[in-house]
Amino acid sequence: MIKTFRGLLLDGEVQRIRLSTKKGKVGYRITNFQVIQEQPGQQDTESTVTINKVKFTPLNTIDLADGNILGVAYFSATGASAYPQNSFTIIFEQEVFNQDIFIGTKDLSGKAMNYYLEIETMSLTDNAAVVSTLRDVRLNPQVGA
Prior knowledge:
This protein is mainly beta. It has one helix at about 125-140; strands spanning about 1-10, 15, 25-35, 45-50, 70-75, 85-90, 100-105, 115-125. It has one domain (about 1-145). The two termini are about 30 Å apart.
């Protein structure tokens, strides 16, 4: 089954996507991640949108060595109709997780970004649920708190 989430993120905002279950026996994997600015063609924007395993402060710095990052998007566009330019890069992890996730954005000009996220759900065995939960707790001690 595929779950979809979409929303508008204000600059510097982080939204929580509630996915965790009592026993942690439902796993999730990102299958699609897209972003678009709030006012296409009307404003200049240069934004990063990050999906993270823990609550975080959105920055325009991307460090893919960070084990908490599940996905990032970079979106750049100009509002000038004479010289329209758009560029974007989207990277997302195929990792299975069973906890809540967080999505946030940072824009150099303070603009808002829309996101669309598709997550595949799957049943986890008892062992897979324990492994996923322990991995998250080991990476982030505050997850178990």
